[in-house]
Structure formats: C-alpha cells, structure tokens
Amino acid sequence: MATTNHAPRARSPAPGPRIGLALAGGGPIGAIYEIGALCALEDAITGLDFTALHGYVGVSAGGFIAASLANGLTPTALSAAFIENVGGAEDLVDPGLFTRPAWGEYAHRLAMAPSLLAHAAGQVLSGRATLPGLMAEASRLLPTGVFDNRPLEAHLTQLFSQPGRSNDFRQLARRLVIVATDLDTGEAAPFGQPGWDDTPIARAVIASAALPGLFPPVEIAGRSYVDGALKKTVHATVLLDEGVDLLFCLNPLVPFDSTRQAARRHSSADAPIPRLADAGLPALMSQTFRSLIHSRLELGMKGYETSHPGCDILLFEPDHADAAMFHAGTFSYAARKQMANHAFQQTRRMLRVKQASLRTTLARHGLSLNVQRLHEPRQLSAGVPDAPRSPADALMHRAHEALDGLAHWVAQQESDAAQAPARAGVPRQPRPR
C-alpha cells in the first residue's frame, strides 16, 4: 500500500521516558472496561497523561479508544461521551450505531440467489449434484455480517474531524497504529505504520473491529479486512520495537474461574453458577473465546520478557473471578454506567493491592502512585469522593486490602522461588536508560 505525498504534522516525542499504550479488543463491553480502567489509572498515577504518550496501538474496540486518545480525547471525555452520554453532540456515541442491520449486505446476497439456484438446478439435472456441494453453494447466500459498520465509520469520521483532531494518521502528533487482519492472507495489517498510513483512521478502526459474522469485511484498496484480534490479542510488539520504556497493556476479556470463592461470592444470589457447563451454550462459547485469546496473550507476555528486557510492561485486566464482567456479555451496552464504574473500582483495588511493586516500577519512569487518593472513596463519573464510609466499614475495607496485599506478596515470593533455579548463574541484564 503506497503512501501518498502529504506534509506530516511534526511528531515531537514527549520529554522523559517513552510510554506506550496497547489496548486489546472485546466488543462494547471491552471498550467500557478500558474507559473505566483508564480513568482509574490516570486518576491515581501522578504524571500520567494518556493523551500525550509516545505511541498507541489498538485492536478492535481498543482501536476506537486508542484513536480517540491519540486525538486528544481524555479518558474522562470518553467516559462522558460513551458512558454518560453528556458533552458536545459531535462526541456522543449512539448505541444504535452498533446494531443497524446490514441491509446492503443482505441485498447483495439476495441478488446472488437466481444465479446460484440456476447453477444448482443444472447440477441436479446433470446428476452431478451432491448434498455437501449443494449446501456449500447455498452457504454463499448467508450474509458475512449481521450489522452495518458504516454508520460507526461516519460517526468516527465526524468525531476525528473536529478542530484540533485529525482523521489522518500522518497528521497526528503521536504514533497511532490500528491493527486489522487481511481476510485473504491472515496477515496483520498495521494501519498507521509507514506504508499503511494513507487510510483514514475511522476506516482503519472499523476494519479492526469487523468481527466476522457480526460485521461485514471492510474493503480498503481492493483488500478485505476483518478484526485484528484474529492474529494477536494486543499487538504490543508494534510499540516495543520502537523502544518504549514503559508499556501499559489493557485486556478486557479473561476466562472466568467459577471455582474460586470470590467468584461464587460475587455471583448473583438468585442464580449462582458454580459450573459453567450448567450455564448453557452462550456461557460455554464465551468461556471458549476468552480462553483462546487469553492464552495467546500469556504466551506473548512471556516472550516480551525475553525479547524486550529493557521495557517495563504493566498489564491490567479483570480478575478471573469477576463474575460481573463475565456475565455482562461481550456485546452488552445497556448497563454501561454500572460496568464502567465497576472497572474503575476494580482497577483502583488492583492498584492498592500491588502498590508496593507498582510504586517502584512507576518511579523508574518519573511517575508516582497517589496512595492517598487511592484510599479515598471515589466514583467514575466525576472523579470525586463518594459518601464517606462509616468507621467500621472503613476498617473492614482496609483489613481486606491488607489481606489481599499479603496474598499477592506470598504468591510473588512463591513464583520467584520457583523460577530461581532457572535463573541461577544467569546475570541480570541491565535496563538501558
């Protein structure tokens, strides 16, 4: 894909350590989780500005968030537009954008029916027809997507065309990469990289989010593109290869562990599901999908430790026993306020539990954890304190956090002890600065 001549906006790297952000997909619920988690991170980490990072890479729903951040929309602004539905009319996200029928795709498939029926009739009359062959011919009449992604593209084009923003990768002040998958080759398509940066950002986003079966493939320069998650979960290598010092990774979808006591405790009291086999086909399919994409993520994270030892990588994702995130469903949108605040609170809890190790890591990059703010009761919508807890509730809350922190420390010590023999005699690689 050739890049046309176009005067780029100067990319001036932010002073200090190079910080990147990699966002995985996960449908509307994934975007909701990432907005809540990003709000929590920016609220609690002093010196962190998610609109002024060295670079961004987004996949599927994460592409929408990454493109918005690179265009200067803060996590709080995204929450207002996507979660609260308040703010400027041009920024508001209408839920109907995701569920408009793909009438054009339906009409295209219907128009194919006469020729396919004629061909099938010819096969039957000649005696060459087989049941599998007829079924294969009939399957061509099925639409490649149920919903139309063009309304979302139109909205994103308008969103990124406002003053101070751009729908052109080459005009952004920061590196932005949106990854889709070439349907005919299975290869990753890194829109925004040199040679891939002449595609409008809005079109790259809908291509990256074109989950087969839900949305039709997106045509770009004569090629068909679908969801970027088919290839990798986060595509963090895009930024790691640019030499970032600190990389924040957000992954909304994790397999659900229904056996843990925490999972049973947070399940709805009227319908706890200790065994996913009892929950029916939707739960089974969701667990299968989550397990597949998360196993790739785990392999990738282990590989990054070896391939890019000079970068600190911080991964944030829901607890595997978080029943609320699992039962919300990948394409849930109605309960977005509750789920976004849930992600906000759970991310704050993770920061409190892991504050000792996080403070050390963040300090290496000029950032600091605002522990006092983390211990204040806060809510997502305005980032202000909630109603104060009673002394007894506050004491119990701190006790649970202390126990969680202790459990995390013990688990870390056990993990380090288990890995010690493998590291024996191997000198620690210095961290380049």
Structural commentary:
By secondary structure, the chain is of the alpha/beta class. It has 16 helices and ten strands. The protein has helices spanning 27-44, 61-70, 75-84, 103-111, 113-126, 131-139, 150-159, 201-208, 237-240, 261-266, 281-307, 323-328, 336-353, 355-363, 371-374, 391-423; strands spanning 19-23, 45-46, 55-59, 175-182, 188-191, 218-220, 223-226, 246-250, 312-316, 368-369. Strands 1, 3, 4, 5, 6, 7, 8 and 9 form an eight-stranded mixed sheet that branches. A hairpin with a 5-residue loop joins strand 4 and strand 5 (188-191). Helix 1 (27-44) packs parallel to helix 2. The longest helix has 33 residues, at 391-423. The chain is globular, with a radius of gyration of 24 Å. The protein starts with 18 loop residues before the first strand and ends in a 10-residue tail after the last helix. Residues 1-12, 266-270, 382-390, 392-397 and 421-433 have low confidence and may be disordered.
